[in-house]
Structures
1.
Amino acid sequence: MKKNSKPSGFSTRAIHAGQEPDLETGAVSPPIYPTSTYVQQAIGKNKGYEYARVSNPTRTRLEKNLAALEGGIASRVFASGMAAINAITTMYKSGDHVVCGNNLYGGTPRLFTQVLAGHGIEFAYVDTSGVEGVKNVERALRKNTRMVFVETPTNPLMALSDIQAIARVCHRRSTAELVVDNTFMSPYFQQPLALGADMVVHSTTKFLNGHSDGLGGVVVCTKPEQIEQLSFVQKAAGAILSPFECWLILRGVKTLAVRMEQHDSSGRIVAKFLAGHKKVKRVFYPGLPDHPQYALAKRQMSGFGSMISFEAGSLSNANKMLKKVRICSLAESLGGVETLISHPATMTHAAVGKKGRKEIGITDGMVRISVGIENVEDIIADLDQALHAI
Ligand SMILES: *Cc1c(COP(=O)(O)O)cnc(C)c1O
């Protein structure tokens, strides 16, 4: 695969991998199996399913599908994105060391520092973005570093980390595995495993499902031992995804390619509009030529997506405009068909604290938009009238 080309055959895989018609009835849409247990033919003789925490046919289909989209050997799905990230960390023990980006989805450092650090896993937070980021990761690696965890682009600053260069450093200098949170780009625009990452995680709650109607998370793997461990965690810890949610995501991914094309096209238009607006001080979007990692964005991703942040100048300005939006909904989350707008300092990144936010550059005037697939003229008109309230 050319590094930044769209993965070939993507839509076909999205619609067909794991989505084969039902053998029993020919149903084109995969059946939902709402069962907790399965009848066994004799002691030790069954059709591969025993108890639903261990496995479920709808879940098996989704796990096949998502592995095919990311180019992994297999995947395991969990009850939320956080449950998926937590499942990975069960591979690590007290005394292990993890290097991670200093600007992650707010829930990730909360899990790391408030839950796992207490279990003896050590975390080092570094700026993993740009050329310096690769050196920062290299400097932070230790003998006992087991994982490097990177989110690119970051939330909400849209900084990009060089997946290929960081993967090389991990594999040359340590035994650490590189895990990439690919939620913002989806496998349609970014294929971390093809760039050398060892695992990919997603909050399927966002673009993969795409309709703001179900939580979920996935880990896509490159090695059988990772899958073995995650299957064990599903069985042992039990934070599995319900068959109905699995079905929602199977349904959502069928339109992932066309949705992402529209998200990307509208994202570019909205970013340009904001960059030219007199009430907007600064725009953070990897598709703008003044973005510090614009060259990396073009090399590493095959689109720029629809996540945009901008600086409204102050908390009061942000509040004035957020009160006025009509089509854009003031809400947490992202990646749905509807445009969502949020205020990171008081919403997604409130748990990071004022000092933490200042260190990474999240201001009180920062606003984040997940551009949906409504008519882009309507989105722009809505933002324009709301910005005039400033
Ligand atoms: C939402 C999100 C998560 C957490 O996923 P949940 O499904 O809400 O648990 C993790 N990473 C990123 C980048 C996210 O946007």
Note: The pocket of pyridoxal-5'-phosphate is lined by residues 80-82, 105, 107, 151, 155, 181, 183, 203, 205-206, 215, 217 (CB under 6 Å).
2.
Amino acid sequence: MAQIVLHALVLFLFTFTPARVAEGVTLNVVNFGAQPDGETDSTNAFLSAWGRACSSTTPTTIYVPLGRFSVGKVVFKGPCKNKGITVRIDGALVASSNHDVIGNGGNWLYFDDVDGVAVIGGVLDGQGIGLWECKRSGKICPTGATNLGFSNSNNIVMNGVRSLNSQMFHIVIDRCENVRVEGVKVSAAGNSPNTDGIHVQLSSTVTILNSSIATGDDCISIGPGTTNLWIQNIACGPGHGISVGSLGKELEEAGVENVTVKAVTFAGTENGVNKVSGVEISNIKYQDIHGSSASEVAVKMNCSPKHQCSGISLEDLMLTYETKQALASCNHVGGIASGLVQPNNCF
Ligand SMILES: *[C@@H]1O[C@H](CO)[C@@H](O)[C@H](O)[C@H]1NC(C)=O
Ligand SMILES: *[C@@H]1O[C@H](CO)[C@@H](O)[C@H](O)[C@H]1NC(C)=O
């Protein structure tokens, strides 16, 4: 078992940085046939605009004006000649309310094998409510799609994006290097299944800043093969907190190393399962973590004798449960506590 969970309440007000002014060529998706009426399928317009941007060497902005643009699965496929593509969204991209349309494709808006892409602003509405209901009813339903996924990509920015009601995970960073996520707002109902806010795996040098995440599952889940991850100024909750560990899909998974979690406030709920894992977790720092937990055990670090968690540092941690001090439950964890750490019974 190697999963670390911090869960805990919070109200937070955020101001987001204004969208960056881009240089170079601007391609308005409306000029490629997209319709801001919330109904007309604009998938092909997005693909055409992407094709143009990707094959150009001039920095290019794909501009999505105000309005609701209905799109199916869009794969923004690289490699591109272009190392400076900005997707600037003033309006909203909306998935079909029929969950079968994107529900089997793994991802809804998916960037693969790109370098130097920024997604700025906008609302991404996965319309996942129908699929969550299907899953809760016990019927056979599609697995669901991630709202926004990046795979095999480098030098990625997500700034001021709002991700709503994803069918599954909201944002996934997979096999990427140098990713900056800032001023992002994620929301889904507290009882929505498997709607993790941001999931990172097999990636290095990822920074997640100034964001608020409210979902039915982990706010941020840190999967195997994550190194040099920095998380700061996050309002998390409702949700299951920040978890580190395995997806439990393979027996031997790559470890998780050098993660800093700083200035995070929690409004958490109960965490369900700790998955069995072959993941080694080392050098994780929690600093300035506040909030109140919805369950008595606010800090859960359940590591296995074979894969112990080491180098865990807790500094200025203050988590309460109702009016009392919350508890920690730690197994096979080595590390140090400094400053005021409550609960303080981990090491
Ligand atoms: C993040 O938010 C803090 C406080 O809200 C602000 O001082 C800081 O400038 C923001 N950082 C960035 C990079 O926008
Ligand atoms: C740990 O990660 C941070 C970025 O999150 C990086 O600045 C730092 O150099 C890394 N430390 C080591 C020892 O690799």
Note: The helical segments are 43-55, 129-136.
3.
Amino acid sequence: MWKSATRSLATAALVSAPKLQDVVIIGGGPAGLSLLAALKNSHKTKHLKCTLVEGSNLDPIRDFGMDPPENYTNRVVSLTPKSVEFMQEKIGSWDFINLDRIKFYDGIRAYDGQDNSSRISFDGTTTGSGVLAAMSENINIQSSLISKIEQLNDEIIDEEEDQPAIILDNTKVIDIEDPLNAQHTHSHSDLNEIDPSAGDEALDWPIIKLDNGEALQARLLVGADGYNSPVRKFARIESRGWQYDRWGVVGTIKMQFEDYRALGWQRFLSTGPLAILPLTDDNATFVWSSTPELAELLLKVDEVIFPHLLTAAMTLEEVDLQYIYKTLQNNPNDRSVLEDISWRLSKKDISDLEENYPLPVTELVPGSRARFPLKLSHADTYMAPRIALVGDAAHTIHPLAGQGLNMGQSDVGHLVQALEKGVDRGMDIGSTLVLENYVADAWPSNHMILGACDKLHKIFAVQWTPFVYLRGFGIKTLNSLGYVKDLMVQTISGK
Ligand SMILES: Cc1cc2nc3c(=O)[nH]c(=O)nc-3n(C[C@H](O)[C@H](O)[C@H](O)COP(=O)(O)OP(=O)(O)OC[C@H]3O[C@@H](n4cnc5c(N)ncnc54)[C@H](O)[C@@H]3O)c2cc1C
Ligand SMILES: *[C@@H]1O[C@H](CO)[C@@H](O)[C@H](O)[C@H]1NC(C)=O
Ligand SMILES: *[C@@H]1O[C@H](CO)[C@@H](O)[C@H](O)[C@H]1NC(C)=O
Ligand SMILES: *[C@@H]1O[C@H](CO)[C@@H](O)[C@H](O)[C@H]1NC(C)=O
């Protein structure tokens, strides 16, 4: 009796004793995995003890590397050449990407829904490489990052010197405590027992409580934990922004045939921008920003009708579209719409269609439609003592310029750079002196991109005629003003 009682007490004490780590990353999305891989791939930071905690199961992502699904998944992003270069040079994860499922494309043709003569082209030639950006599934990126982390772990010979990266998936963070404020914290002597080398230092390290009963204590806690970021809330960092009252409806589609043009297409409709972006062969993906009512309809419309509706939305006049929506609102399976659409399309000038519009959409991959609420948010800062935020935890953006994931890559680049500098100078990497460099490098450019996309959204969501006229005029002027356009291309391509 007596013996077993002490043993269970001892076990309980062991379980609740926080494990000290240099860096704890919450979130196994693209941002969190990129940070872990980049830290472990840098000879300046690879000695740091790093643990990543992810609430969901990462097995499907691990499996993707060996056995990818037949069709494209519907979470797809546009990667800038800068992000690709970062994954090639700094993270070294690009070697593990499934290149058969990456589509490099050369340009975007954007045009106005209410004035089809106002057009603007963004081309990769301005960036020097000839490539504007690359389309990739989120899961392809995440899977390549996990493979890179596993490779780096496998290469470790001396586990004392080079710490393997630890990924705890299926593990949720349920609470974060500040040991200086919390009531039931471990006494000073407790901490010294766990790791005497940590000394007094660990006294102010945040304690991360996991749903498996264990706890971690971090010299630096990084929130890569997405829009609702528990880390940001713990750090009491204010995040400002608004919901757009718009949804992004996405899905995987087939075009009539493979388009040699390798272009993305974007039409600014009054309900929001609609983009069709190329994937390999005749595969493509769409992002359709819509009002709540339209988004609901788009998810309901019969799978046979949907591809034709998408073609119509890229091509027909907005009044015609409104009429088609109304018919479908009465009955989302009303196939008489198909005849109506083909009749309206038949009245268009074929050579204009071939030259200035995407190919017709022929198929929707069954079950591939999904919707996401669109919002803009930006944290006031990306740091607090022993805390840093990266990716969607720090900012969310309208998908119209496809910048969300790329901004996260740029955050990770700046954070790793700041940490390397800190290590070089023998500083505590959780200290505000080190983290201030990160915020100074990352925040202002993100703020600029967020502002520009927000303004674009607002300009194009307006239906008031004089404004539409001005906006068309604006697009044309912009298109002829090479200098201004180059700046925009530089933003899209990240160069
Ligand atoms: C419709 C749409 C289209 C988009 N198109 C593009 C595009 O073309 N180009 C582009 O660059 N970006 C695009 N984005 C944005 C892009 O998808 C996101 O920016 C990106 O996924 C953010 O990555 P992240 O790692 O920061 O966050 P997330 O992917 O949100 O990852 C956060 C992770 O944290 C985990 N987590 C959260 N809380 C906890 C907890 N308590 N415990 C444990 N784990 C936790 C979550 O499980 C999640 O895995 C688009 C977004 C949308 C909605
Ligand atoms: C894309 O389409 C082609 C031909 O239709 C197909 O062979 C290819 O495997 C597809 N790729 C993916 C990932 O679906
Ligand atoms: C472009 O707009 C004009 C005027 O509204 C219209 O007559 C023409 O058919 C449109 N072209 C296409 C391809 O929609
Ligand atoms: C893949 O896409 C094709 C073409 O849309 C479809 O016929 C097939 O059922 C899809 N396969 C799966 C597993 O979803």
Note: Confidence is low (pLDDT under 50) at residues 1-14, 184-196, 462-474.
4.
Amino acid sequence: MRCILAASLAVATLAGRVLAHPAVSYGADDEGPVRRRKTLGFGPVHPHAVFRQVPQQPLPGFAPAPLRDPVEVAKHFVGGLLRDQLRAESGFVVRKDSYTDKATGVTHVYIRQVVNGIEVADGDINVNVKDGQVFSYGDSFYRGPAPSFYSSAVVPHPHADYCTELEYELESQQDRFEQWLGAAGQGEQVQLVRRRFNEALHEPLKRIHSMNCAFVNLPYDLAHKSTAAALEDPRHALLQFMVAATPEEGVVQDILAKYDEYLEGMKSTFEAHLVGDMQTMVEVIDNVPDAVSPVKAKLAYVQVPHGDKTTLDLVWKFEVEMKDNWYEAAVSAKAPHRIVSVVDWASDSPLAPVPKEPTERKLATYNVFAWGINDPSVGNRSIQKETYDVIASPFGWHGLPYANDPTEDDFKRASKAVKNTTTTWGNNVFAHEDWEGRNAWMYNYRPDAGESLNFDFPYEPKLTNTTDALEEAQKYINATVTQLFYTSNMVHDLYYRYGFDEVSGNFQQHNFGRGGEENDAVIANAQDGSGYNNANFMTPPDGQNGRCRMYLWNTAMPYRDGDLEAGIVIHELSHGLSTRLTGGPANSGCLGWGESGGMGEGWGDFLATTIRSNKNYSDYAMGAWAANRPNGIRNYVYSLNETINPSTYKTLDKPGYWGVHAIGEVWAEILWVVSQRLIAKHGYVDSLFPPAPLDNGTIPSGDFYRPQEYTAAGEKKPLVPKHGNSLMVQLVLNGMKLQQCRPSFFDARDAIIQADQVLTGGENYCELWKGFSSRGLGPDARVEGRTPWGGGIRTDDYAVPKACLED
Ligand SMILES: *[C@@H]1O[C@H](CO)[C@@H](O)[C@H](O)[C@H]1NC(C)=O
Ligand SMILES: *[C@@H]1O[C@H](CO)[C@@H](O)[C@H](O)[C@H]1NC(C)=O
Ligand SMILES: *[C@@H]1O[C@H](CO)[C@@H](O)[C@H](O)[C@H]1NC(C)=O
Ligand SMILES: *[C@@H]1O[C@H](CO)[C@@H](O)[C@H](O)[C@H]1NC(C)=O
Ligand SMILES: *[C@@H]1O[C@H](CO)[C@@H](O)[C@H](O)[C@H]1NC(C)=O
Ligand SMILES: *[C@@H]1O[C@H](CO)[C@@H](O)[C@H](O)[C@H]1NC(C)=O
Ligand SMILES: *[C@@H]1O[C@H](CO)[C@@H](O)[C@H](O)[C@H]1NC(C)=O
């Protein structure tokens, strides 16, 4: 293990490109007030974590397969897996967000490790069970001896090894960067790139270093003052974290100057929470500087590598909601100056029972860029109907029970009746203006179409100059909120039909009694005033609202409005999808940094590109209209042509590929190439939306699914999308559900291949492998010296498994 812990630039925004290509012009984003959100994202790497397939295992003495309770099967399996490896103090609980996927019949069981009665926050096993058999699992459980709870053992001094590693990393980054720049010569572009390097990578790393290693310089010498108290009192660790996390230098200075005052001001209450069937105590701390809501704190263990050994460190686990971030942080409980890991939930960027014939109310209409038109450069607006999917949105897009409407008073909320709105307010999405760029959203302005439900508002932006550009853009707020509402609802319904439903953690106020946690529709801010030229999404665990913020782009005159570029909206909403599906609905910490954080970006680009594509193949850029750059906001456009987009797995080794967006671009390109192989084999369907159910609830195959097949026992098999593009979307979503928390490229690739095994019996095994291999992600691709921001030395493999050599 060369490096234990380091910073990644997990800028979870749409456009995080920082230092990729010095030759590219950065255009207007150098001039305008570019929104650069501060964000932290780093944590230990777990070399022992695996994602594995399990050969068919007969379990002697068990009931016939279909009768077995999948959770019992999973528990039995995990018991076997851990036999002889865990000590008496160690156990596990089955998380309540485990679920059975109605479409595939796969039960996804999430298991959390418990040592000394305390959760191991990164000790996860996810077990995939079908027909009474475990067929794959991911495992990052800790295997060493349990620490004694109050052991004074390991700790404090500023983990010398860790700080040395960080210093080494800082230096070698600088060296590599200088070397690379050396070849690029001088000039303005190079200066710009240098500045960006410092801002984006070097400064944050230095900051982490000083937060964690400048032990002796702390104003109150916390090493002595708070170490003893920290185990009982999370406030020390929390204040330390806020010092590192706040983007406001003034707040930092103020905390340092009035440390005791802040400490006293923070008041705690206690709540009992259940993890599986284990009760844990959560401390809820109010008055935390720069947090916008009370912070949740609980004791947990995390696994930290020390040299070549991994130990369990006791930490305070915090959930901190701030204006621009929503952090899940682990701070050492024994050395409260030390942040062990941080994930920012903000990312910048057979189906359910069929309800009765739903709404009889008038359907809304919207003057919008129709689904499939990516942005104003490819088509004009037209009047579209409220074409909601009856399975995904039984009350339509404008109906929700009074009980789930947070703006209603207690009296109204006692009613189960359905409220029908005439604004952009519904069960899936609350869309509105946020010119002030604030956190408040409930009473923000929303267009009201009145009884007609006709959301037809003008959009005729006139040529402007900088003085009146903002004012001009704001004139069309009615049209842009309408568009954001329409696109977001379409995305909700589409992902629902591919399996992002209530039990798997989707975003809805009301769940129609279908399970999962409620009251978590997407809060969608149009024209968010906190900046320009970006977009972001915050994904807390199931049961808390996701937040989508869209910005104006000052890249052209008149300003361009991100709300009108479907690809950007889809990218952002896909963060919610991948975060909730990976590692289970209640775990939002699985795509925090490095390769997993990068894929969190890549899935969004891939889905946005797939949705806008049509039967005639074409290359596509991401964000080209909003950014006013033909090649968009990534290094390359998505293309089958290796000259146009040369990305392979090994591309991740290059300087400029340390941030999640660059990593994500490589992943999205690989998926794009793979999907074209499936399209070549299975053809293309114009609409990705599956057919509506018949009156008796049956989903007809139509031209969308293959004819229904049955098992030997006469049961329906999962419906299989017939065409290449729809099948790929299905495999990508099913793969997210199979893969483990903090997946690597290899894990996510294997999960997609396995999703095909489950769905079709593996008939696309060779097409999928050939696709992945063509971009270096063959079976023998390797990485050595993996680092938490995605660094390492990679080897491409262009070979395919033996079984695929024949044809
Ligand atoms: C909303 O519309 C539904 C379906 O058309 C109707 O049953 C319901 O009564 C309406 N709600 C109210 C409060 O009018
Ligand atoms: C939009 O409509 C105008 C006027 O009919 C037409 O000139 C223009 O080409 C259309 N734009 C696109 C992108 O189709
Ligand atoms: C900008 O536009 C406004 C309104 O169109 C005009 O009054 C003003 O003179 C323009 N300013 C410049 C610098 O062109
Ligand atoms: C938005 O629409 C409402 C209702 O039609 C209208 O009163 C208002 O002036 C519009 N807002 C803007 C900025 O045009
Ligand atoms: C695809 O190309 C054909 C032939 O050029 C054209 O007729 C058709 O309209 C195109 N389809 C789409 C969806 O662009
Ligand atoms: C790939 O792109 C390059 C550069 O645009 C072009 O010269 C080449 O013909 C393309 N290859 C194919 C197979 O289309
Ligand atoms: C539902 O209706 C369709 C068409 O009428 C019929 O083919 C199918 O067998 C029915 N399914 C059930 C479960 O009744």
Note: The chain has 18 helices and 26 strands.
